[in-house]
Specification:
Blueprint lengths: L13 E3 L2 E3 L5 E3 L11 E3 L19 E7 L3 E8 L6 E5 L3 E6 L5 E3 L8 E3 L17 E7 L11 E8 L4 E4 L1
Parallel strand pairs: 3-4, 9-10
Antiparallel strand pairs: 1-2, 5-6, 6-7, 7-8, 8-9, 11-12, 12-13
């Protein structure tokens, strides 16, 4: 569905130069009532099968969704960096904290992941780079990557840390 505004007409929208705005309530596209009282923009497509919010730009430009703190400024941005087909996650205090490359590699602490999951960063006392948290056992299991689903028959090994006994077993 397309929202059309006639700059020559009158209505709830206000024209300011080449901009239009509406600050009197909710903007609904494909719906007649907001689904939640805090909704300000609702997109709904009853005909299906998908509803998209599209933010388009030429490849050389950046496309982004920003999440702002109106008091202090920009807090976080999910964006496609210009001249790439990657997806990046940015925070004001951490910079680019995660990057998903077009090939499917995910980088945390790096913008250039070379494997399916690349963790990068300086070690922090008592925290390290990868933390597995649990109330009873923290476990990492390694499987044959050619198998369709993880199971006992294709498990290559594992590391298990028992919280109760404070012991690490590697098999």
């Amino acid at each position: 569905q397309t929202l059309v505004y006639n700059l020559g007409g009158s209505g709830q929208w206000t024209t300011s130069g080449s901009n239009i705005y509406y600050n009197g309530g909710n903007v609904l596209i494909g719906a007649t009532t907001p689904s939640q009282t805090y909704d300000k923009l609702t997109l709904y497509n009853a005909a299906g099968p998908h509803t998209y919010l599209r933010i388009g730009a030429p490849l050389a430009n950046q496309s982004a969704i920003a999440f702002n703190d109106d008091t202090n400024g920009q807090d976080a941005v999910i964006y496609r960096p210009g001249s790439t087909r990657d997806l990046a996650f940015y925070t004001t205090t951490g910079g680019i904290v995660m990057n998903i490359a077009q090939a499917g590699n995910v980088g945390i602490g790096t913008t250039n992941p070379q494997t399916k999951l690349t963790l990068a960063g300086a070690n922090v006392s008592y925290a390290g780079q990868l933390q597995l948290a649990s109330n009873d056992y923290a476990q990492m299991t390694f499987y044959n990557s050619s198998a369709l689903a993880p199971g006992a028959s294709n498990r290559l090994g594992h590391m298990i840390y028992s919280i109760a006994t404070q012991s690490l077993s590697i098999a």
